[in-house]
Design goal:
Helix 6 runs antiparallel to helix 8 (286-322) and helix 8 (286-322) packs antiparallel against helix 9. Strand 1 and strand 2 form a beta hairpin. 58% of the residues lie in helices and 10% in strands. It is of the alpha+beta class. It is globular. It contains 19 helices and twelve strands.
Length: 617
């Protein structure tokens, strides 16, 4: 069994040698932390993940959730680990201590959540929703609402959810029909039905606080007329105690491809006319509030997908080292040759290298986005804050969509490495493949993320944020050009970065022309190549960060000299791996992005111009 889930040495490399977290925590905001403390927290997270969350992953998948009479029973294996998760104060890890959080840098919290989600994504949704719903109360709630709800949500005593989707209003949230009528006491009567509600009903917590999107009677149509309400499963009295049940009824749960331990519920609100909610934020400003939770959730979903890919790679790598089958290719004609571990076979090494390049690139990407949140928090002025916030705006849809698409492909390759055994439930990778698929669908399908990138993010501040992203990439290119052994890789990444700028400008111009429909047919390819180039940037950056370590432990960057040291020194071997993976990605995978950008710039309109009947019967 692969007990690593994520390679700790690479986690530390990204945090400290690439992103400089040890320097960031010298800021007064993080004065309570030092490197030793952060290392201890990540170690404790890894221990909890490996020893408790991971052993509950398969039982949770096999047992699943049970629905009976409006109640949902979660897998029995989740009860112990939920108590342990709460006891460790893991829910509000990176939140303000004054609001009940631990104040950890988001960069470090990203590493914690990689371990947790790699071990058991289905379980992690329950405490994750406690946090997501609680964050809305922290940011937009009144003092009274914070006093009543926040502490119990951030501690996990009460659960949370997110009620957006309706049977006839899926991604088109503005078409919702759930209504709200104001009562004389300042509360609101809520009536409607919601579907696909993760954690909408469960028996882990004594209460569940539902943020609900609804339209106040007489409000404008579309998203402009949507408000957000807090609707508890059980009403909360003024003193914080629990009162009567609140006419929130679970009418069923979905039978899904994966994430069986996570309850996906249908809820009816106000079926008996007795569902009471309280307004969160301002009337008709619900989407502005909910987007805070949705953006947090989109980063979280990117971490989910990436974490499962990291775990699947870890399992596949261990299997490839242990599984003996077939002779070494160079000994095929030797009748006395013994079977060798399949990691010696060229095609298996190709698959492992492909997986490793995406897993490690995504780790740097996800952690980097986390560091952008930290930079916003410690920014010295508005201009600096806006710069980092702009990068967050640009990168969030890419992290969500690109990382989840590539994560599914990594899990698919993990099954392939196991061969026939990978397709059975005897080994863990088939579950990772099933569980991972949802990440490209929920919290806005990846096509919607691509439309957001093309339709909103590229043009924000007249393209200022996109140009800032390209500028960050060019800084790494400039640093790499100063290192002789990286100069050629730097040139290839520079070419891809420049081409991305040109391609985005071309497609953005097309989106403002009569060919707007054709332009948006290329939104997803644009997001994909943006992710491809970001991966190239991340690998070049990783190579720059690895050079000092390789020189230290190998004594030289000369390939002939360092080869002998790499075979004898595990530290030299680690840094050699960073350069080799960067080389693999930049020389063998990044070039495909150039072809993709050729296709995007061509804006072939066949998909939009073909008659609907021509698609088939």
């Amino acid at each position: 069994m692969a007990l690593e889930l994520a390679e700790r040495r690479d986690v530390d490399f990204v945090l400290y040698e690439q992103l400089g977290l040890d320097k960031l925590i010298k800021h007064d905001r993080f004065r309570e932390f030092n490197k030793k403390a952060l290392d201890l927290i990540i170690t404790e997270a890894r221990t909890l993940a490996v020893k408790e969350l991971l052993p509950a992953n398969v039982p949770g998948d096999r047992e699943g959730c049970a629905f009976e009479g409006g109640s949902v029973k979660v897998p029995e294996a989740y009860r112990r680990i939920y108590d342990l998760y709460r006891a460790g104060d893991w829910i509000a890890l990176a939140d303000d201590p004054e609001s009940g959080g631990q104040g950890l840098p988001v960069t470090a919290a990203s590493a914690v959540h990689e371990y947790f989600n790699g071990a058991n994504t289905s379980f992690c949704m329950y405490p994750g929703l406690c946090h997501g719903a609680g964050k809305l109360v922290e940011l937009f709630g009144t003092d009274e609402q914070k006093k009543l709800y926040l502490g119990k949500m951030y501690s996990g005593q009460w659960g949370g959810s997110m009620l957006l989707t309706e049977p006839e209003a899926g991604s088109d949230v503005g078409s919702l029909t759930t209504s709200a009528q104001k009562n004389g006491d300042g509360t609101w009567s809520i009536n409607g039905s919601k579907i696909f509600i993760t954690g909408g009903e469960q028996d882990l917590t004594e209460n569940i606080i539902h943020p609900v999107l609804a339209r106040i009677e007489g409000a404008p149509a579309g998203t402009k007329g949507i408000s957000l309400f807090l609707v508890p499963k059980i009403r909360v009295n003024a003193d914080g105690s629990l009162g009567e049940t609140n006419d929130v009824v679970c009418t069923g749960i979905e039978e899904k491809l994966g994430i069986h331990g996570s309850a996906t519920c249908s809820l009816t609100l106000g079926g008996r006319g007795q569902c009471i909610g309280i307004l969160l934020g301002e009337e008709n400003k619900g989407m502005r509030v909910m987007f805070h939770m949705m953006n947090e959730a989109r980063l979280g979903v990117g971490i989910q997908g990436f974490a499962m890919a990291s775990a699947a790679f870890s399992f596949a790598l261990n299997y490839a080292r242990e599984r003996k089958q077939g002779k070494n290719l160079l000994q095929m004609m030797n009748p006395d040759a013994q079977s060798v571990p399949i990691i010696q076979h060229p095609d298996v090494r190709r698959m492992l290298m492909w997986m490793k390049s995406y897993v490690e690139g995504m780790r740097s990407f996800v952690y980097y986005l986390g560091s952008c949140f930290d930079r916003v928090a410690i920014a010295g002025d508005d201009a600096e804050r806006d710069r980092w916030q702009g990068l967050i705006e640009m990168l969030t849809p890419v992290v969500k969509a690109y990382c989840t698409d590539k994560a599914f492909e990594v899990c698919n390759q993990a099954v392939q490495i196991y061969g026939g055994y990978g397709y059975t439930m005897e080994y863990p990778v088939e579950q990772y493949l099933r569980d991972c698929k949802i990440t490209s669908i929920y919290e806005g399908t990846n096509g919607i993320q691509a439309m957001d990138l093309l339709g909103r993010k590229l043009g924000m501040k007249q393209g200022k944020y996109f140009l800032a992203l390209l500028g960050e990439m060019q800084k790494t290119v400039a640093a790499a050009k100063g290192i002789e052994s990286l100069a050629t890789m730097a040139q290839k990444v520079e070419k891809a970065v420049n081409r991305l700028g040109e391609t985005a400008m071309t497609l953005g111009t097309t989106a403002m022309s009569p060919k707007v429909m054709t332009a948006f047919a290329f939104a997803q390819p644009l997001l994909e190549v943006t992710g491809d180039v970001i991966m190239g940037w991340m690998h070049l950056w990783r190579a720059v960060a690895a050079v000092p370590g390789l020189e230290k432990h190998a004594g030289s960057l000369d390939p002939a000299v360092r080869k002998e040291k790499v075979e004898k020194n595990k530290h030299a071997a680690f840094y050699e791996g960073k350069l080799r993976v960067a080389e693999f990605y930049i020389y063998t995978l990044l070039p495909t992005a150039m072809g993709k950008m050729d296709a995007i710039s061509g804006t072939c309109d066949a998909a939009m111009e073909m008659p609907e009947k021509s698609f088939g019967n």
